[in-house]
Structure formats: structure tokens, C-alpha cells
Amino acid sequence: MFSYPTVRASFLFLAIAVAGLLVADIAITTANPWRDLGQFFLGVVTPNFFSTEGLLTALLRTVAFGFVGVTLGSFFGFLLALLYRFMPVRIFCAFIRAIHELFWALIFLQFFGFHPLTGVLAIAIPYAGIFAKVYSEILDESDPEPAQLLPKGTHAIAAFLYARIPDCWVQLRTYTAYRLECGLRSSAILGFVGLPTLGFYLETSFSQGMYSDAGAMLILFYVLIATMPLWVRPKVLPVYILAAPFFLGEGFPIVWGNVERFFTEDIVPAPLRNGEGLAAFSSWLGDVMVSEALPGIWNTVVLTQIALVATGILSLLAFPLISKHFGGPVRRTSGHVFLVIARSTPEYILAYILLQLWGPSMLPAVVALALHNGGIIGHLIGRQTNTIHLRPDAPQGFARYSWELVPRVYRSFLAFLFYRWEIIMRETAILGILGIYTLGFYVDSAIQNIQFDRAMILILITALLNIGVDILGRYIRRKLALQTMPTC
Predict the structure, then answer these.
(1) How far apart are CA 399 and CA 449, in angstroms?
(2) Rounded distance, CA 148 to CA 167, Å?
(3) Could you tell me the pLDDT band of residue 362, with boundaries at 50, 70 and 90?
């Protein structure tokens, strides 16, 4: 068994995660966690849809921010995809997508304030980098033969529009629609930094112990995501895109002097801003690295590796829930509902809920990351098993699972898992805003203390860490000859 590279890689990552558990802060610190959890589930099954006057407005603005941000991101991402073969463009796209939407929102809040532009740009900028990468991969995989059949002298733009785009149009459209679902989740969590989306009201309800109100918001969000195929239709999509900017709200006016001061003073390291010289800057940077960056990096890496393995385990346990090779239609329907809820709830919201119920530690973050990402991968692998035809005398039960299906889908499973490695690290860093000692905790603390220079250094380190994990993940996929595939 250990002669297979995929098996050796799996056990290596498992060993790293077990070692991480030995040093991680895994604990439940609340006095009555099960009582609190029971009250939360009671609130979900007894939702109060009429207590919050602004709930429907928040839902509408969640959709509006999602549509505008994804539209801008896809437009500029497509333009960047056309130039993606150039190294500077690839580096730029890797950098902007490595910074989480909430980090972008925290940056823009400092000079745009609670203006709609803050939320729109927080989604559009990282999504442009993501779209550029995926669109470029889709275009590169298109069939070159149609372009070769065009008459000589055909303009390059005409050849591109009439030969390459039609060949990969379905893939472009499918991925863009999938990314729109991700955009709605990103839009929802922007409320946790004060923007008027669903997360703002969810945080308010939880902080006041109004679980029925929070349950209503979660149910509305699940319905919104689950019914997207019904209300997001190609014919009405232009109407949504044109109407969405008018539902973002007005916010406070932008003070352009704050924008100038942010770039010329606030983010300039204090020793350089005060003219203290390079020696003082080196001392200042060393203090940032020792007291904030290194502890944040350590906790971010430890939590990421634990969550990555937990995601893998949960994915392998979850895919039979929707596989036609196990159980009947009732069981598969229940499995679909569970996986839809798991993958539709943003990790940040899951972690926030669990932190309120279990107290501050890495445990809520691990569970939140594993549930969300495990729901995504479990759904994709389960759907893949439905295309597998077993022989009539194939074994039943656990033998079918362990000897027939898992070996056939394991390489695809690892490809999905390593693809999501970077995404899990991005989410791990941002969960620090909730009080977990990852890089996001130190970024948020620096911003709260009006130390934007320290915050920008830490955000830059977060981006470089994510880029490094992305490069390592692609290297491992290439060494193991795993097929890469984009997921949200």
C-alpha cells in the first residue's frame, strides 16, 4: 500500500495534522456548550422572519453586492486572462487573489468608510485574480482547430471571438455562475465588518441571544443559494446586473483627503514616516516579525494543516450520502440537503456561530473549515461516483466503499483537496478577526490600534504565505500527476 505515492502523501499530511493537534489550542471553554447548541438549533427550527425590519433589505443588498462585485471581477478577470501568459500579470493576479475579501474590506474601510464602493471592490479585486487564472486555463484548453479553419487574413480579434470563445463558452459560463454563488457568500460575510449585508444582522442577533432571528436569516440565505438555478436565468441576468448598483445603498460620502493620507502617510512604516532612518525601520520590522508575524504564521499553518486533513476525512465520509451506490432516494435526498447546507454556509459564519457556542479556540475554526470544504468536496466526489458503473457481483456495504469506490475516486479527491489548500489557508488567516490567534487577529488588532503600517505588513505576509501554499500545492499535484480542477 505504501508503494503508492498518493498513499504516502496522504499519511504524511495526516502525521503533520496529528502533530499539529498536539500543539494546537483545541478546547471548549463555555460553561454549557450543549445547552447553547440546543438553543441555537431550537432557534433554527423556530425561525422568526418578522422581527428584523431591515432583513429583506439586507438580503437584497447581499445579492446586489454579490452581483456587482462578481460582474466587475469577471470582466477585469477576462481581460487579465488574455495577458495571463506574461509573468508580471500572473504575479499580480496571484497577489490580489491571495488576500481575502474581508482583508480588502478592512483596507478600503480606512479611506472609503461605509460606502458601497468598499464592499464592491472587496469582492471584485480578489475575484478578478481568481477569474483571470481560471479563464486563462479554460481558454488554453480550448480546441485550436476551429481557428485554423478560418480564412487566411482573419483578424486575431475576430478569430478569438468566433473560434475560441464558442468552443469554451459553456465552461466559462458554468464557472462564472458557480463563482456568483461564492460571491453571494462573500457578500454576506462583509456584514461582519459593518457593511449592510446579511452578516451584519446575523452578528447582531447572535450577540443579543436572539437565535430565532439568526435562524431565520440562515434559512433565507440557504433558500437564496438553493434557488439560484430558478431565479438566475440568462434572459434576466442583464436586468439583474443593470439594477444591482441601484440597490447597494448610499453610505457615507467619500472623503478623498483620507484616501490620499492613507497612501502617503498611514501605510508608510512609522520610522520612515518620522524620518528615523533605516536602522530604526529594521528594529521596527523585527519587532513586527517577532511579536506578531511569526506567532500568526505559526498558528495559521498549524490550523490550516489540521483543517485540511479534517476536510479530507469528512469528504470521504460524506460522499456516500449522495452516491447512488449507497442507500435509497430518501437517504440521498437527506444527504443532498446536509451537503447543500454545509457548503452554502460561509466558513466565517460557521466559525462565528461555533465560537459563540463553544468559546474561543481553534476547535470552532477547524470544524467550520472542515464542514464547509468537506461539503464541497464530498458533493463533487459523490457526484463523480454516480458516473461509475459497478459489476453485478460487486460487494455491498463497507467493502463496496473501501475496495470499489474509494480507490477509483481517490486521485480526484486528492486533486480537489490540494486545490482547496490555498483557500483553506486564506480562510484560516481571516478567522483571526474572530479572536483566533492567526494572522487575521494581528491584522485586526493593528487596525483597531490605528497602526495601518503594521497591518499592511501583516497582510502582505498573509498574501505571500498563500502564494507559497498555492505553489506547493501545484507542485504536489504535478508530482502526483493529479488532475487540477477549479472549485469555489
Answers:
(1) 57
(2) 13
(3) very high
> How many Cα neighbours within 13 Å face the side chain of 1?
5
> Residue 309 is which amino acid?
V
Question: What does the pLDDT look like over 105-133, one tens digit per residue?
Answer: 999 998 888 889 999 999 999 999 999 99
- In terms of average pLDDT, the best of 124-128, 264-268, 353-357 is 124-128
Alpha-carbon gap, residue 93 to 245, rounded angstroms:
25
Sequence-distant (6+) residues with CB within 8 A of 485 are 412, 415, 416, 419
Cβ atoms of residues 248 and 64 within 8 Å: yes
Secondary structure (DSSP) of 114-171 = S-HHHHHHHHHHHHHHHHHHHHHHHHHTS-SHHHHTSPTT--HHHHIIIIIHHHHHHH
Mean pLDDT of the chain: 87
Long-range CB contacts (< 8 A, 24+ apart) of 261-264? 261/111, 262/110, 262/111, 262/452
130 touches 72 (CB < 8 A): no
Give the model's confidence band at 146: pLDDT under 50 very low, under 70 low, under 90 confident, else very high.
Answer: low
The answer to whether the Cα torsion of 343, 345, 346, 350 is positive or negative is negative
Pull the grid cell for residue 423.
Answer: 483557500
Answer whether 334's CB lies under 8 Å from 321's CB.
yes
Q: Which three cell numbers stand for residue 429?
A: 488567516
Cell numbers representing residue 49 in the block = 422572519
pLDDT at 47: 85
Q: Give the cell for residue 465.
A: 504565505
Q: Residues 181-214, buried b or exposed e (16+ Cβ, 10 A)?
A: bbbbbbbbbbbbbbbbbbbbbbbebbeeebbbbb
> At 483, is the secondary structure helix, strand, or coil?
coil
How far is the C-alpha of 338 from the C-alpha of 329, rounded, in Å? 14
Q: Give dist(CA 362, CA 24) in Å, integer.
A: 7
Distance, in Å, from the CA atom of 239 to the CA atom of 249, rounded to the nearest integer, reads 18
Of 53-67, 246-260, 440-454, which one has max mean pLDDT? 440-454
Task: Give exposure, 146-159, as e/b (b: 16+ Cβ within 10 Å).
Answer: ebeeeeeeeeeeeb
The reported pLDDT for the residue numbered 254 is 78
